[in-house]
Amino acid sequence: MTYHGLYSRYRKFLDIPAYSQEITLLEGNTPLIPMPRLAHQMGGGFDLWVKFEGMNPTGSFKDRGMTIAIGEALGRGARAVICASTGNTAASAAAYAARAGLRAIVLIPQGKVAAGKLAGAAAYGAQVIQIDGSFDDALAMVVQITQRHPIALVNSLNPYRLEGQKTAAFEICDALGSAPDWLCLPVGNAGNITAYWMGFRQYDQIHKTGLPHLLGVQAAGAAPLVIGRPVEHPETLATAIRIGRPARGEQALQAAEESSGRMIAVSDDEILAMQRALAQEGVWVEPASAAGLAGLAAEIRAGRLNVRGKRVAAVCTGHGLKDPEIITRAFPAPRLLPAKLDALEELLLSE
Ligand code: AN7
């Protein structure tokens, strides 16, 4: 069956107005990749899959929410959309706004957005504005500006973003036949974990697919939901989740609790180690995207999570290509050789 995008595939499960338009780049339908070796490295005895959301059109899961949010904004008669972003939301909003013929304005924290995201937002034609402040400052600004001006807010405070993003839970259930026992994922502004929980519950009501336990994972330097209060100056190399006041924090905590799961934090070193481990399986994700699996590994290692005989799915939210510098900084520049075969032979034989 030809794939026509999320709106088309899951329309009947989406709580959206009749006036919503279909604005699609054929997002969704992302691979659920078996990870037997990685499961083995974590102690084995369980099944592990990665839902590789980096395979969406702009390279992150945000496209699921944006197809629906931008389609609603267009149908409502909006002419412009705005968001605050650590990068992926900006690129996605820019692409879908371009597709819809809307003006896109994106506010980003100065100097803290990975190169591929910034370039994406610019390439798709958004008006990109840096704020001398954090993501949280930028979010407060866009919320206020949309209260004063007819500009549609497309951060995950917009309920249609969650309507779109919940489809990832549907896809996982469709692929596995039922919900996994555990779902691990990174948590920043906390929209995605909220959306997954909505999706799993809805599918369970309709198809009796069961419910997973949710393991939400924050970066230790930006873990407001773990320490129980906002973080004024969040810091992490995983810039996508460098967020100190999650807009959907309450709902995220409720989702973790209702699912008999939990919210934990991992260090940047654990995140980068998991990014490497995933790349060794051929799946290159941006740092934030490795947080969910890093959290899973830490919980298993500490004996806090018994996954024996269980099915575990991990959401890898964004592609490694988004943040090339985190890799290139860690490696010396490639060797430069004369364009001579004997030089190549000599080098290969010496190593
Ligand atoms: C790769 O783009 O908040 O908990 O402004 O880019 O739903 O916020 C990005 C978040 C995880 C966290 N992984 O998801 C933004 C932004 C990646 C991300 C998250 C983000 P939420």
What report would you give on this structure?
There is one protein chain. With 351 residues, the protein is α/β, with parallel strands linked by helices. Helices cover 42% and strands 15% of the residues. The protein has 15 helices and 10 strands. A 6-stranded mixed beta sheet has the order 1-2-10-7-8-9. It has a 4-stranded parallel beta sheet with strand order 5-4-3-6. Strand 7, helix 9 and strand 8 form a beta-alpha-beta unit. Helix 3 crosses helix 7 and helix 8 crosses helix 9. The longest helix is centred in the middle third of the chain and has 17 residues. It is globular and about 65 Å long. The N and C termini lie far apart (50 Å). The relative contact order is 0.15. The model has no long low-confidence stretch (mean pLDDT 97).
Short description:
The protein is α/β, with parallel strands linked by helices.
Number of strands: 10
The share of residues in extended strands comes to: 5-15%
Q: What is the mean predicted local confidence, pLDDT?
A: 97
Task: Extract low-pLDDT stretches.
Answer: none
Oligomeric nature of the chains: single chain
Largest sheet: 6 strands, mixed
Helix count from the secondary structure assignment? 15
Ligands bound here? ligand AN7
Helical content, roughly?
Answer: 40-55%
SSE pattern, N- to C-terminal: HEHEHEHEHEHEHHEHEHHEHHEHH
Shape summary: globular
